Amino acid sequence: MEKVEVGKMKRNRIWEMGEVDFFVVSRWILILLVLFLIGYNTARFEYMAVAYRIAVIYVIFNFIIRFRIFKFLEEEKFMFLLFLFDIGFVSVALYLSRGIEQNFFIVYLLTIVMAAMSSGLRSSFPVAILSAVLYMWIGYTTGVIKQFNDPAYLLRLPFLFLIAFMSGAWADMMRKKIEKKEKMMREEILKLKNFYERIINSVNAGIIVINTQGEVMLENPEMKRMFDKGIIKEELLKKIMEERRGNVLLRIKDRYVDTVISSSKKEDLIIGIVRDVTDLKRMEEELEHSRRLADIGKMASYIAHEVRNPLGVIRGMTQLIKMKFNGEVLNDYTEKILKSVEMIDRIIEDTLDFARKKPLEIEKVNLGELIREIVESVPIKKKVSSKNASVIFDNTGGCVINGDRMRLVRVFENLISNGLDAISDGGYVKISFKRDESNVYVNISDNGCGIDEKDINRIFEPFYTSKKHGTGLGLSIVKKIVENHGGMISVRSKRGEGTVFTVQLPLYKKVKDKEVCYEGVNR
Amino acid sequence: MKVLIVDDEPSIRYLFSEFLKMKGFDTDEAENGIEGLKKFHKDNYDLLILDIKMGFKHGIEVLEDIRRQGYNTPVIICTAYKHLEEDVRITSSENVEFLAKPVDLQKLWEKVERLLGLKTNAG
Q1: Tens of pLDDT, residues A404-427
Q2: InterPro entries recorded for this chain (chain B) (predicted)?
Q3: Do A308 and B18 touch (CB under 8 A)?
Q4: Is A316 near chain B, with CB under 8 Å?
């Protein structure tokens, strides 16, 4: 959680919670009383000008306090100076107006109450003491008080202290109450903060709050995790700012995020709730892919039955013609028909193979022997002799693996046959093995025409072919079979120099069940 | 020797019939499993050629029926689904051969020879 600070209410200023107004009002009263005090004693009229000047300064000073122009005036240490000023002001007024002879000492009470309200007993008592001392001193110096033990004045002094005690104690009590309430509120706010933080932190979705300038005000841990996983922050912010509202699926580089965007009531904050749905999206895509394959399967199955019947008739009838009638030209024609029939049949078989979901039948397979059998099989030998080519088979490193024999034959027959198709007369296809602790690597290389750079990334895609008569399914079936065996296939090629296919397969492991876990497609 | 060809495709029946006649066999035809069974019970056949996918009664059902009734007549099963070969073998492994579509007359003849022991006799 960032930039959210709730529950930190520091009370280091004295003017909080409306106290400023209380002081200002009290001091207005103080000014009025003092002016009245001076004015009441007309005998001292000559001092009114001075009194008014002081009052004006006092008023200006109060404005400064009220509108908080100088922040340092709000510091607690300054407060005491303020009270000293007030006491001095009152004392000067009493002195000048000879108000000491009247009952105007009451004005001191106001300063004591103000001090009590501000800082409780610790202010009210010093102010009371100071007021008492000044009061007695003024009385003595003006000759009003003849003796310090004059009961008329001595009776007034305890009254100052009584007011100091009562107002100070009351203010302290109120302050404690307020502080207690404040503490409770702070705890409550903290609890709430923790509660919301827990919710925000445990939500299984990224939460991001930004202001209208696009600055991040809040992001929860899940959101940070998403950024770590590769969602680009700047791009997400940009798209959220653009959308402003609604539920949108955003694509950020190679990832998909489902984002619910809303704005605060004042429209000053934009809130995004983000879910990384990349895996879900990929699953959907895979599901769609599987559906397509299933459709191909159904179609292939339909074709298999519906096309193979008439195809059989074409082949059979051609064979009958060949048997009944002889002749060089006729033989040539019938041979061509039969070859075309074979090609159509191979297309059907490839399509069926690609779409079929039959589990592998795993057995112990000697890979070296299996490839030797393929190399020595009639179709491969036919191709080799037709091109005057050679197949160089190095059985060193050939080993035993867990595999489906028939499907592995399909893999290597296809790769060797492709190599032979790619070479020119007199070319070669070379087969060799490499091994590490857990895998065998079969390299099938040729010195043929090679594969164009633009084609190389697509050769394992279904229905993609650069051959004139290919179905485009051969290599995708090969890849599927290899992956179903827990292996991998890769290709390197250079135009004009040749191609190397590398089939990586896991080495033989003893397994309890006959069928090991190669069923299904590993992606 | 007499062969019963059971297939819902007339051109296939015609092809097999022509070929087998050329090879010196007598042939009879049926266009579905029910008709095939009827004919099978009426006459004596040395060989049955059954298509798997047919209306009314398919090839496997016909094969199971005749085996259940105690007949061990050689049977050639034709199917467009090559991977069904195994299932057919599991159902009845004795005197049964599998012929994948599109049919190849050479392969058909190999299977006929094997089932009827013609190759051994000739050899």
Answers
A1: 888 888 899 989 988 988 888 888
A2: Bact_response_regulator, CheY-like_superfamily, Sig_transdc_resp-reg_receiver
A3: no
A4: yes
